[in-house]
Specification:
The complex is a heterodimer. Chain A is α/β, with parallel strands linked by helices. Chain A is built from 13 helices and twelve strands. In chain A, strand 5, helix 6 and strand 6 form a beta-alpha-beta unit. In chain A, helix 2 packs parallel to helix 7. Chain B has a three-stranded antiparallel β-sheet with strand order 1-2-3. Chain B has one domain: Sufe protein. Chain: A. The relative contact order of chain B is 0.22. The two termini of chain B are about 15 Å apart. The chains are: A alpha/beta, B alpha+beta. At the A-B interface, helix 9 and helix 10 of A face helix 1, strand 2, strand 3 and helix 2 of B.
Chain lengths: ~400, ~140
């Protein structure tokens, strides 16, 4: 009998039932525009304020430091272009890394075409940014360093504290895309030397289409969207009240899970899956760092076979996975992350990512460990590569 | 994104394997590009009596391998050489645009295997048809 095992939580998570319940009134009975002065508006405003407190609390920020956006990509763009435009009189140099999400990488590349100077730092084989490379790259006209908190494809957690400290010492602003990390790792922006940080609700059991940018008090950025002046003038447009309320509730629940050390169980299951796959299957490598790794994240490259084939065979068995192979991307190039960590193309084509969620069980892991080796074996039997009998 | 036919053949491909005493073997594609197709032919009286494939690649590559081997089985060499990538894609009820190069690989795979056979027989020049560069999207 086939199960349904969703292991693509890095792509998106289901909305928690409590989150949905918290959101529902703001579509119908409490539908007011938070900017209206009447009772309907005030009710929505109150909900918005509370959600802002909740998201702020998750990362120990001041509520005024949280700017709600239409998602993680928008928050990344707001941070990067917002700083670029606010600081262009001070300099034109921005530093990022080779394994950023495209929302960061492509925003930087676009600024490159607009006359900014972009340095893309290489990473080591685990996907770690090298601190000495960062130190060397910073110049007097550097206005921003943007390096992700943790990578979506290979799960590696960057040395954010050290990166931030280097930026502080050099007087350069530091933005981190924490979409994969928020709600899954403890983050305290009062302790971390971070000036701007991107979050997204749908990676932590909140709704899609809502994100936030943490902007440290005193850091000036330019808006991308002009209009009614909402979100301190940094993101105009009537607020997505229901979505933001959902984000707030998701933040409360995530904080609770972190306080209860629930990610320790996720980590245990993650390690069961990693060890189980490495034990059962030959010619496979774990991509990313073994320990400096998101608690829910596993990613591999299987030799001699291709990622999309694995993904679709697993899908037919009720297992939801993803891949950074060329065939899943619509282009003919494998993922820039896998190439940046030095994998040859033919290995990168065999990538498979399995990302666990809060409801993933031991039985789910058993099911994958039982079926994945069969999928790999049958595709390898079909492959001309790998000198098979 | 894939037709039901592509999915069906990907899940249950026909003619998978190798022929140890094949009369013609063609290998096209490149692991760097993410697909390699190896076609084995058994030929009697200029007719393909058996055909097998081994493929490294995505679902489309595997489904097109299966389809093209079915299409050429029993055909004369001349008939088999006339099977085009368009024929293969059509027989699969279409392929997504970014996967059309997989059907080209199928056509080239059959041609390469036939050329190998003819070259072994010594009555044809072997042509370089192997894709040395990744196909353009």
């Amino acid at each position: 009998m086939s199960r349904s095992v969703y292991l693509d939580h890095s792509a998106t998570t289901p909305v928690d039932h409590d989150v949905l319940e918290a959101m529902m009134p703001y579509f119908t009975s409490d539908f007011g525009n938070p900017n209206s002065l009447h009772a309907w508006g005030r009710k929505a405003r109150k909900a918005l304020d509370e959600a802002r407190n909740q998201v702020a609390q998750l990362i120990n920020a001041d509520p005024t430091e949280v700017i709600f956006t239409g998602g993680g990509s928008e928050a990344d763009n707001l941070a990067i272009k917002g700083i670029a435009y606010a600081r262009k009189d001070r300099g034109h140099h921005i530093i990022t890394s080779a394994i950023e999400h495209h929302a960061v990488l492509d925003a930087c590349k676009w600024l490159g075409k607009e006359g900014f100077d972009i340095t893309i730092l290489p990473v080591d084989k685990y996907g770690m940014v090298r601190l000495d490379e960062l130190e060397r790259a910073i110049r007097p006209n550097t206005i921003l360093v943007t390096i992700q908190f943790a990578n979506n494809e290979i799960g590696t957690i960057e040395p954010i504290e050290q990166i931030g400290s280097i930026c502080r010492e050099q007087g350069v602003l530091f933005h981190t895309d924490a979409v994969q990390a928020t709600g899954h790792l403890p983050i305290d922006v009062k302790k971390l030397p971070v000036d701007l940080m991107t979050m997204a609700a749908h990676k932590m059991y909140g709704p899609k289409g809502v994100g936030a940018l943490y902007v440290k008090k005193g850091v000036k950025i330019a808006p991308l969207i002009h209009g009614g002046g909402q979100e301190r003038g940094l993101r105009s447009g009537t607020e997505n009240t229901a979505g933001i309320v959902g984000f707030g509730k998701a933040a409360v629940l995530a904080a609770k899970r972190l306080a209860n050390n629930e990610n320790e169980n996720e980590k245990r299951l993650r390690d069961r899956l990693i060890d189980g796959i490495l034990e059962r299957i030959d010619d496979v490598i774990l991509t990313g760092h073994r320990t400096e790794r998101l608690p829910f994240h596993t990613s591999f490259c299987f030799h001699y076979i291709e990622g999309e084939s694995m993904l679709l065979r697993l899908d037919a068995l009720g297992i939801g996975a993803s891949s950074g192979s060329a065939c899943t991307s619509g282009s003919l190039e494998p993922s820039h992350v896998l190439l940046a960590i030095g994998l040859p193309h033919e290995i990168a084509h065999g990538s498979l990512r399995l990302t666990l969620g809060k409801d993933t069980s031991d039985e789910d892991i058993d099911y994958v460990l039982e079926n994945l080796p069969k999928v790999v074996e049958s595709l390898r039997a079909m492959s001309p590569l790998g000198k098979r009998g | 994104m894939y037709s039901q036919k592509v999915i069906d053949l990907f899940m249950n491909p026909k003619n998978v394997g190798r022929i140890d005493d094949a009369d013609g073997v063609g290998e096209v594609g490149n692991p760097v590009c993410g697909d390699v197709m190896k076609i084995y032919l058994k030929i009697e009286n200029d007719r393909i009596v058996d055909v097998k494939f081994e493929t490294f690649g995505c679902a489309a590559a595997i489904a097109t391998s299966s389809m093209v081997t079915e299409m050429v089985k029993g055909k004369t060499l001349d008939e088999a050489l006339k099977v085009t990538n368009k024929d293969v894609a059509e027989a699969l009820d279409g392929l997504p645009p970014q996967k059309l190069h997989c059907s080209l690989l199928a056509e080239e795979g059959i041609k390469a295997a036939i050329e190998d056979y003819l070259a072994k027989k010594g009555n044809a020049k072997q042509e370089e048809s192997e894709a040395k560069q990744c196909a353009k999207a």
